What does this fold into?
Amino acid sequence: MKSLLVVFKRQLASYLSTPSTYLSIAMFLVLSAALGLFMRQWLEHSNNHWQAFIHVHPWLYLLLIPALSTQLLAREHEAGFIDFLATLPLSPVQLVIGKYLAAWVITGLALLLSFPIVIVINLLGAADHLVIASQLIVSWLLAGSYLSVGFFICAITHQRLVIFLLTLCLLLTVGGVSSVLDALEHQTPIWLIDSLMSLSPFLRFTVIDHGALILRDGLYFISMIVAFLAATIVLLNYKSR
It folds into this structure.
């Protein structure tokens, strides 16, 4: 546990000392506010302003998550850390969990910094704090699932540009699943479409109704996080041999 905490603090300090982290968070917040204001929901559904902002999060994570993922193992690769991992008093499990939690905290910080939007919605008298809190939790879980995918890709290659592009392409593919399934609606059995839809974290996020955090959806995001982190640990174990 002590080693895990050291890794967590070191990675968190690395994020907080890197200008690109602040730039990524700033872009996330500015685009979230700008796109939310221009969404049709803002004008048409005056009793539910928050929906216009939260619905753009899955797309904005396509910029934030790859940017954060490039920093997870980049310095360790450059320093040859993976080659000496087996000789250090640090297991791949501690390394992966510590670094992942630090990156996940940064995504949580980006979400918390959206509080000015919540204040404005309160001033308009249309805020439902239970809905807002629930959807922020779901958004954070979605970001965590995306981040676990980015970490796995980071363990495969050490090239920052490749990590960014691979993560972006994979998440874009996930985001485009709904369009593909819509096109195949009349040519594919319904049960197959429903099964494929249930595997998409993006679609899981969009079907959440009125901020209701359903247990099976929360477990889905958590299981996805665990699965990709486990795959990352296995890969790092293999590389350290």
About this structure: The chain has 14 helices and no strands. The chain has a mean pLDDT of 76. The longest helix spans residues 129-156.
